[in-house]
Amino acid sequence: MKKLIIGGLSSLTLLFGTNSAISTASILEDNATVYDVEQLKLNMQHLIAFKRVNETTLEITNWVPRDLHNLVIVTKNSPKEKILEIDTLSGFSKQTYTIPYLGENATFDYLPQTDVQRKIKGLKTTWNITFPDRLLLEKKVRRADANVVWKPTRPQDVRYYLSFLINAAQSISTPKFHDFWTKTAFYDETCNIEPQYRLTKDEFNNYSKKERRQYKNIRSNCYYNKAHKEYIYNKLLHKTFTVGVTDGGGLGGGSTLGLNQSEVVEHLWDANSLGVKILERGDWFIKKANRKKVESRTPWKIFGHEAGHTLVKKGHQRNYCVNSENSFVSVGFLVYNYLTYKNEMIVTKETMVKRDLDWEGANSKPLRKYKRALKRGANKKRLNALIQKLHRPTARFAYEWGGVYGKHALLLPTKNSPEWYEYLKAHKEGKGLEYLRTLQ
Ligand SMILES: [Zn+2]
Fold it and tell me: From CA 65, how far away is CA 164, in angstroms rounded?
């Protein structure tokens, strides 16, 4: 048995093992269950998560969808002890290691060795992220005033949504984003601004000429000051997001963050050179003439809008959520676009594990066809044929999903069976899950 060297980091030369995982389990595989997804809780500060299983077993989960190399694992407690060096920690995996002795109260960390590890460590966001399944929880699945629907959250969705959210967190954590954010002319159309957060003439006069130009109607008295921007920025850094997959638009408010599936999946890697040029010029705003050219349907656009709703009260009167020349959507977009274009994101096209190329490229086509056919009033047979072609049909109720309901091991009733009708009745009363349990 080797002895641990305790002391300054420079003397930490001793390892217990290299690449000696006793078990490796892939997480978020396509066939993972609803239950696995429902149980998923992670924090942006713990994308590389440690769990002391017992005295000699350490479990490390990599929530980042890319392989990480040359990881140096240390105890967090002082003095730090280097306990493990890992050649490769696979993306989206859980690896278990045997360590001769793990102190009872030991907590663990890694010392960043590579650029990407430093980027992960550098995230300022402390987001708590969950993916509660709206169908299983029997939450209202259709919003009353729009065509936005929740879709089931499958493991493959989580892989793409996490990839985007990690990159979004990276964008928000950059000094550039903070700089752009504090220069943005955030306003409230309703002028309902508390006195301590209202931009005063004195503060305005201290802004640079270029900054002042962005305040188009300074006499309106409806702009926020820098103190408010800082307050909202901090709110953004420390959010809890209950993430969901939607179709037909997004949903945002409180902790709810529903992002349109096609924007997250099909446009995850979209970026353009015009956006890069604007940022390099030092502009934090996108002039009206350029907005259509620059802002395509990237996940940022829907994220900026919906996350904006989680930062300020309902409605579209504030450009913390509304897209305009100067807005959260625009400033964030410029940074997000730049990092994607320059291949500087934590998750990149080349490194993301478990991509589904077919889905990224072609998912939307049958869906659009289906919607068109539906509008034209196509017959049922044809619609069903189209649904079969859909990579991902919209299921609004558990029974539409079919099969065994995750690790709850609830066998769903066959469509149109007496039990199915009973289930529908129970579902309406919010007791669907309860009823399903009686069938088992
Ligand atoms: Zn909105």
Answer: 10
